[in-house]
Design a protein that fits this description.
This protein has 464 residues and is an alpha+beta fold. 51% of the residues lie in helices and 14% in strands. The strands form three sheets. Strands 1, 3, 4, 7, 8, 9, 10, 11, 12, 14 and 15 form an eleven-stranded mixed sheet that branches. It has a two-stranded antiparallel ribbon with strand order 2-13. Strands 5-6 form a two-stranded antiparallel ribbon. The chain is elongated and about 100 Å long. The two termini are 26 Å apart. It comes from Rosistilla oblonga.
Length: 464
């Protein structure tokens, strides 16, 4: 006697009821799998992108999470700026004197090493990269920085992949062709805004719909996709960024005649065909954030403590802040969604119970005949449990296939927006527990009808 075949035929006899019960369970399982997959994608996206090639982000005092989201992910609103001379505190005496000679202006005590230079010696592996934010190109952030951002930083799971160009090259601090106004765009920016090397764009000030700057940047490079937030950013030469209207702060040390000359030069630059050829003085510059990689890994915590003890700036660790974000916001949301979907599965399990239980009155005579032909009570009970299990397995598989089919259909959008590559077979470890739990639920749901079948009175059922 083939118990599986008998159980399958019993399910076929109640075709519509079995189909509706299976669909109900598939929807519940599909929701559970989608929640687990989406949480895995979000977690993977944040954790992958928090591995950025630098240890610390330094910005004005405030929320370290906001600083991280704004600087690393280009989310949230920019924090207050830091004076440029604070940025120079991470360099040795030689570099401080070089920048003062190159850009002019005023710098307190240029003939001494910066007070943080001990931790960030560039000759021993340290990295100090400034970031200026506040402008947009369409919906995307414009990032004013130096060529070192794309030359020296790495990306990827092991932070060992250099930034590569789909076309063009990195921008230069100053070029004979474009002066200070060169830019590189991320892969998503290039595709969405439909731009290429050789095009020119004018950033908008402070908001995607803000006033457009008169000065434009020439695009000299388009990055290959990296799976990081930098795919959604436009990188411009920081020297050109400073020369745009509204980006220079009033000098506290220069005389009125010198400031007037700088202002006149920038105004003239706004005329058609004119490009500024003199950089902004040091004391009129600010930076939004500073990306730091100390010369020794052990210096990171020490440097963070030293900076945070001061009154002017704060230092945040991207990985640490993102971990806190996951614990405080993302994980609780996942638990709530899992609770809702678990309730959905329980309701589907109750549906299995009701469906099979309601059919028992119609099947008493069939069960009695089986018993009269020699079937044991346990055999009849196993047939009902197998029927419940078949519905559970079929519903679970359909739900899993439906959920992963939806993920596969949206894989392009998911990878484009999060940088996480997914396909139909992308799974999370938590999904391994879904089918066993569904089978357990089905066993519980099928136990009551199976018990009814076990207790069926053969003589009474045949006489009815």
């Amino acid at each position: 006697m083939n118990l599986f075949k008998i159980a399958w035929r019993n399910a076929q006899q109640r075709g519509l009821s079995t189909l509706l019960t299976t669909i109900s369970l598939a929807l519940g399982v599909g929701l559970v799998v989608l929640v687990l997959s989406i949480h895995g994608i979000v977690s993977d996206a944040f954790q992958r992108n928090a591995t950025v090639g630098y240890n610390l982000v330094v910005g004005a005092k405030g929320s370290p999470l906001q600083l991280t989201l704004n600087t690393v992910y280009y989310l949230s609103q920019p924090v207050e700026n830091l004076p440029y001379d604070y940025y120079l505190e991470f360099f040795g005496q030689e570099e401080r004197e070089r920048q003062l000679a190159a850009y002019g202006g005023h710098l307190d005590e240029p003939d001494r090493p910066g007070k943080f230079s001990l931790y960030t010696g560039s000759d021993s592996g340290g990295l100090v990269i400034p970031v200026c934010l506040g402008d947009y190109f369409g919906e995307y952030r414009v990032v004013g920085t130096t060529p070192a951002f794309l030359d020296n930083l790495k990306h990827g799971p092991d932070v060992d992949q250099p930034y590569e160009f789909r076309e063009g090259r990195n921008f230069q601090t100053h070029s004979e062709e474009n002066g200070f106004f060169e830019a590189v765009v991320g892969s998503r920016v290039a595709s969405t805004m439909n731009i290429k090397v050789g095009d020119t764009f004018n950033p908008t000030h402070g908001d995607p719909d803000g006033k457009g700057h008169d000065l434009g940047f020439k695009i000299v490079g388009v990055l290959k996709p990296t799976g990081t937030p930098n795919d959604r950013a436009t990188f411009v030469n920081m020297e050109g960024f400073y020369l745009m209207e509204g980006h220079a702060k009033p000098s506290e040390h220069g005389d009125e005649e010198e400031e007037a000359e700088v202002e006149e030069e920038v105004v003239v630059a706004g005329e058609e065909g004119a490009v500024p050829n003199t950089p902004l003085p040091l004391d009129q510059r600010e930076v939004t954030a500073i990306l730091l990689r100390p010369s020794q890994t052990m210096f990171a915590m020490m440097l963070q403590n030293v900076i945070n003890e001061g009154l002017q700036a704060q230092a945040a660790t991207p990985i640490g802040e993102i971990s806190k974000l996951m614990e405080q916001f993302v994980d609780p949301i996942r638990y709530v969604l899992l609770l809702i979907t678990a309730i959905t599965c329980i309701v589907a399990g109750v549906g299995i119970l009701v469906s099979i239980y309601n059919s028992m009155n119609d099947r008493r005579r069939d069960i009695a005949v089986m018993r009269a032909l020699g079937a044991r009570r346990g055999t009849v009970m196993w047939i009902i449990l197998l029927e419940s299990g078949m519905i559970a397995v079929l519903g679970g598989l359909l739900g899993w296939i439906a959920a992963h089919g939806a993920i596969a259909l949206a894989s392009g959008t998911i990878e484009d927006r999060t940088g996480v590559p997914v396909n139909f077979f992308s799974t999370t470890s938590a999904e391994l527990y879904v089918l066993p739990l569904v089978l357990g639920l089905a066993a519980i749901a099928g136990f009551v009808p199976a018990l009814v079948a076990y207790r069926t009175d053969v003589s009474r059922a045949l006489a009815s």
